[in-house]
Amino acid sequence: MEEVLKLMHTPYVGDFLPFFAWIDIGGHQKKMIALMKRVDVFFDEVIENRRRIGNSESGIMVDKLLALQEQEPELYTDQIIRGFIMKKMIALMKRVDVFFDEVIENRRRIGNSESGIMVDKLLALQEQEPELYTDQIIRGFIMIMLIAGTETPYLTLEWAMSLLLNHPNVMKKIKNEIDTHVGTHRLLQEDDLEKLSYLQNVINESLRLCPTLPMLLPREASQDTKIGGYFVPSGTMLLVNAWAIQRDPVLWDKPDEFIPERFEGRSDDKYKMLGFSVGRRGCPGTSLGYRVLGLALGTLIQAFEWEKIGDEQVDMNAFYGLSMAKLTPLQALCKPRPNMIPLFG
């Protein structure tokens, strides 16, 4: 499933330039077909495994289907059983849609556009522009928030920890800052984050070097305009290379080096940061993302001692797709700090 997700996240030229779809540049369609064959093989292995176990009373769907296969083999072939499994997965996604519809209807009945809840704000916009803010669009917003709210912090946290393990002096500086402003008698809380400026600098620098979205989602020019001296006609699809911008030597000193101090006392650099996109299409969860990352990273450093496995530097090679993940998952050694153990009960 991890390979399926990676392939789904890989940019496909045919999506951006439809007239190239028939060429299959990069072999994307070929890879997808080959991968789906492997998915079929995986389902076959699941079926064979359950067949060997042979427990028709387990309540597991595959076991029930195999019991029916023994009675009517011409009807319940392995291909049919594979189809049932896939159908079950699709049904699960439909249940998710039903759940989101119930959330939307519940908030619609309450009708509190001043609550600050995202769904309420979207429903208020739906009243103004119903053709744009349909229930389907609102469901999409909820799904995006859930996905972005889990994958983006996770990937950023993994990159940040990798950078810190390769720069133990920076990790020590964060630990000293937390010990000074929070102490070791309690765990870090959200209210403490505004006092931890160096921790925020580290998060910014991690997002700069390792943006989870190296290529921002496609935009479309709503009118004729000029960008950098180039004429861009209305309707043009625009792609923003955040990774390149955030390593541009014109904008950054020593752009390929991990230097959190570059953000100290600076406010202008935030306009060069594209980790959460910018403008009206910027991520609505930016402030939440920073808080989650601050709490997670800060707590990990406050509560545990960390070190690399072996003497070599942590591998910083990346898998580039729609999101940028580590090519080799991070592995590290940790142990509780002695003065923090009482807090763990």
TrEMBL record:
It comes from the Eukaryota. PROSITE patterns: CYTOCHROME_P450. It is a single-pass membrane protein. Pfam families: p450 (PF00067). Its cofactor is heme. It is found in: Membrane. Its main location: membrane. This is Cytochrome P450. It comes from Artemisia annua (Sweet wormwood).
